[in-house]
Amino acid sequence: MIGYIRGSVVHVDASAGEIIIEAGQSGVGYNLYLIQHDIEQILVGDEITRFVSTQVREDAITLFGFRSAEERFLFNKLIMLNKVGPKLALSIMNTYTPAQLQDIVWNQDDASLRAISGIGKQLAAKLMIDLAKLLETCHFAPV
User: Fold this and answer.
1) Which of 64, 63, 73 is nearest to 101 (CA)?
2) How many CB atoms lie within 10 A of CB 140?
3) 51-60: which pairs have CB atoms within 8 A and are 24 or more residues apart?
4) Are the CB atoms for 137 and 106 separated by under 8 Å?
5) Positive or negative, the Cα torsion across 43, 44, 50, 56?
6) Residues 42, 9: contact at Cβ < 8 Å?
7) Distance CA 116, CA 91 (A)
8) Of 76, 135, 67, nearest to 101 (Cα)?
9) CA-to-CA distance for 124 and 63, rounded, in angstroms?
10) pTM exceeding 0.90
11) DSSP string of 8-73, one letter each residue
């Protein structure tokens, strides 16, 4: 499993939410999907390090990159939940920081979850319960 990647950005596609990063002098480029607010700050030629979550399916190996281990942790917790795949997890993280999401859960503010495309009333209610269990021992710092 890849824990992190450090290297030079050789391609940025903000509309698709992805970059290609060449790790070291290897000549190998890794495709990473990023949170939108992160990708908007990256330019071709930037040297960056991203923590990585590797998702393996029958037809693909997909890498998701995060600025902090905290963001990667939250992403991995989100995709463990029923009905939450990597795309919905990224949508949630595009909308809220880890600390904001934790506040939403603590305040039982399911309306904030319903504001995210793909989350309706039933899923929001279920996520509130599931996230409360997952996040009860986490304390994310405000950003």
Assistant:
1) 73
2) 18
3) 51/3, 51/4, 52/2, 52/3, 52/4, 52/5, 53/79, 54/1, 54/2, 55/79, 55/86
4) no
5) positive
6) yes
7) 7
8) 135
9) 26
10) no
11) EEEEEETTTTEEEEEETTS--EEEEE--HHHHTT--TT-EEEEEEEEEE-SS-EEEEEESSHHHHH
**pLDDT beyond 60 at 3:** yes
Reported as a single tens digit per residue, the pLDDT across 53-106 is 999 989 989 999 999 998 998 899 899 888 899 999 999 999 998 888 889 998
- Digit-coded pLDDT (tens) for 16-59: 999 999 998 878 999 999 999 899 999 999 999 999 999 998 99
The contacts of residue 116 (CB under 8 Å, 6+ apart) are 88, 91, 92, 95
Question: How many C-beta neighbours within 10 Å does residue 103 have?
Answer: 15
Which tokens is 141 given? 């710092």
Give the whole-angstrom CA distance, residue 38 versus residue 50. 10
Structure-token pair, residue 20: 């290609």
